[in-house]
Design goal:
4-stranded mixed β-sheet, 23% strand, single chain, binds guanosine-5'-monophosphate, alpha/beta, 9 strands, Rossmann fold
Amino acid sequence: MIENENKLILFCGPSGSGKTTIVHHLLEINSQFSFSVSATTRKKRSNETDGKDYYFLDLEEFKKKIEQDEFIEWEEVYESGFYGTLKSEINRIASLGKYVIFDVDVEGGLKIKKLFGPSLLAVFVMPPSIEDLKKRLKSRATETQSDLMNRLKKAELELTYHNHFDKVIINKDLDESLREAQNLVEKFIEK
Ligand code: 5GP
């Protein structure tokens, strides 16, 4: 069961769009926001911490949680990885009285949006172009060539869903996008 009466904020957008940077910024400037730490089977990157960026699980552990109905949503986002939002995570944040911030893929985002309705602000972060996204993913250098191709293929499809979201941020200039995101969420929680 999910017990949440507070507002929630969702950031979606293709891998490399800058949504995680935006989410980290919001978490830094406002202690009332709390990140919904997803579970994943993908390998931990060197700059990530278990329990902070993700709960890193092996496939068996992840599948057990699916069977036990512990997720509000889960996806096999890339061939190599399952990702999912745990019910316990939403309850943990609700018990702190904070606003949940999600950073999930588009399919997961649309499921979460349906689940929480008007209590949730759904923001889509777009790169200015596919070319720009390619550049960003390459410079990040966290993926293998085949992972990179998978991410780009998925990004092209995800971009077509931007009009299903409440707000769209075109991330051309990062400082500008951070300001825009801050304005949007502050206005939403003050409503
Ligand atoms: P990354 O491997 O770059 O951290 O994430 C890959 C994609 O999975 C991103 O689009 C990220 O937003 C998405 N993602 C992260 N957590 C979840 C989740 O719990 N559910 C879903 N559906 N997608 C997620």
